[in-house]
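Anyone up for a design puzzle?
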């Protein structure tokens, strides 16, 4: 029995992949509205701490369903 059922299941969650302009580290986080490829966003690089990263891709994480 699941208490939370509001029809929000089975919505694929896209992931935004960001690349640090300083060190080239690639990071990913859940997609948020307004993201698009090659956009430069003010997000901190987890590795070098620079505050500018560029979106290099937006993908939907798919579950592999191989028959
Ligand atoms: Zn960096």
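Challenge accepted. My sequence:
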């Amino acid at each position: 029995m699941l208490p939370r059922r509001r029809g929000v299941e089975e919505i694929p969650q896209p992931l935004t992949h960001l690349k640090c302009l300083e060190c080239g580290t690639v990071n990913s986080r859940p997609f948020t509205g307004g993201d698009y490829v090659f956009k430069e966003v003010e997000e901190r690089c987890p590795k070098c701490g620079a505050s500018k990263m560029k979106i290099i891709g937006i993908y939907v994480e798919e579950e592999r369903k191989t028959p």
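A detail worth pointing out: The chain has one domain: 14-60.
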